[in-house]
Each structure stands twice: as C-alpha cells, then as structure tokens.
Amino acid sequence: MVVKSVKDKIRSRFNVSVAETDHHDVWTRADLTVAVVARDRGFADSVLDRVDRFVESDGRAVIQGTDRDLF
Q: Does 1 score more than 80 pLDDT?
C-alpha cells in the first residue's frame, strides 16, 4: 500500500504519469517510473527534481538511484 500511496501523491501533486516498473514481487523494494511532458528539458528536469525531493521528504521511501532519458 505504501507504493500505491506514494504513486498517487506524486501523480496528483505534480500532474505526471507514474508506474511501478520493476520488483513487483518484492515488498521491500520498488522501481517507479515518472514521465513528464514538457516544452523544454529544463522544465522537465525541474519537475523531476521536485518529485525526487518530495519522495525523500515523505520519509517512507529512499531513492537509491535515478536515470533520466529525454525523448
């Protein structure tokens, strides 16, 4: 339920798409993918930085790594 709650909060607060993309059967770990559509990379990076800070400040999860791809 923690993953669903975090996903829902990210989705509603930042107006982005969020999906659990790996480690579905492991209750101590989850991979979340966040997608944002923006006119420029600077804005997209800003949104993703705020998502990272939000997850860390929530206290229920620890970000162990991030990857960013621009399409």
A: no
Q: Under 8 Å CB-to-CB from 32, ≥6 apart: which residues?
A: 3, 6, 7, 10, 18, 19, 20, 21
| Cβ neighbours of residue 39 closer than 8 Å, sequence gap 6 or more | none
Query: Alpha carbon of 61 to those of 7, 9, 40, 69: distances in Å?
Result: 11, 13, 29, 22
The pair phi, psi for residue 13, each rounded to 5°, is -75, -35
Helix (H, G, I), strand (E, B) or coil at 21: strand
Q: According to the model, what pLDDT value does residue 45 have?
A: 96
Closest alpha carbon to 36 in 49, 17, 50? 17
